[in-house]
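Quick note —
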Amino acid sequence: MPFAPPDRTTSGRTARHRLAAVAAATLLPALLAACAGDATADSPTTAAAATAELPTEIPTGTTLVVGDPTTQKAVELAGDDLVTDPGLTIEWANLSGGPQTSEAFRAGALDVGAVADIPPIHAEWTGLDVKIVAAVYREDWQENPIYEFGVAPGVDGVESLEDFAGHRVAYSPGQAQGVIVLRALQEAGLTTDDVTLVELPSNGDVYTTALAAGEVDIAPIGGVQIARYLDKYGADGAHTVRHGLRDDPSHLYVPTSVVDDPAKAAALRAYVELWVQAKLWVHDHPEEWKAGYYVEDQGLSAADADYLVERAGIPDVPTDWTEHITRHQETVELLAAATGNDVLDAADLWDERFAPVVAEAAAAYRERTAG
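Predicted structure written out below.
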């Protein structure tokens, strides 16, 4: 059965944005059910080689289906502060994260997903050909990590990564939280044999609940879960350990069929330009972001919103991806050793034609908003 998206509403303050939004009530199961009979996207009539220059003209009728709810809200709030290709039309799909986006890619229901650095690796290991087309990091990643390791009440003597030995550690294979566990063990000179890995999904408050219930001794927690955990259980001895490792990748990835389709590739180029502007706009407008996204959209308290904005870090938009691909290769090798999968060449996951697109869009935004 062909993909039949639900009703759409227009996103953006001016007609030139032409951003269509999939209704927020649409959940992934319904989206995929509509596509169950057509698991792959239509093949393009012409394919652009990975080394060819990216097309810039978006043919009329081209639509990009994007699973990136945070950017969707940023675009809505920023309005005319962002410059958008007038030919870009987006259908916003209400889904995010590696498992959901990869599943939607397989169903031919999604063109772009927003993830960290792990989902593209696992996608390739499971036979899904993907490319990373945009990357943003944090300049101050040491001061503002995404994750800290929560330590359960009553678990004494855990003040460093080396102290993890002999403890039960929450672990989610294939997700960023799982990899930070492996990196932490590696940094401490430990192996998975030195701890007991307890497989748990890292959704919502699963890890903080497991810590409080004594199901695990240590778990990587992030965002407002850190503050809430310490506020609730700190008096009982709960605390966190900082890992001092990079955990800051923010990527866009796509099925390779998207970059091989000239029409989709042109639309993707325009979206990448919009995406990096949105990242910078959020950093430049903390009060608007707190009120419009964290409080109004996500339903967080003002205190939680303040906590998140204060720890969001400064966006780092690299002009060259060489260093980051090298780090990604290290991640591939770490994961391969832990899972028994073959070692991939990380460079094959990156479409480096988009690196200057990201850098130039960031530079143009900064020049336009300076002063």
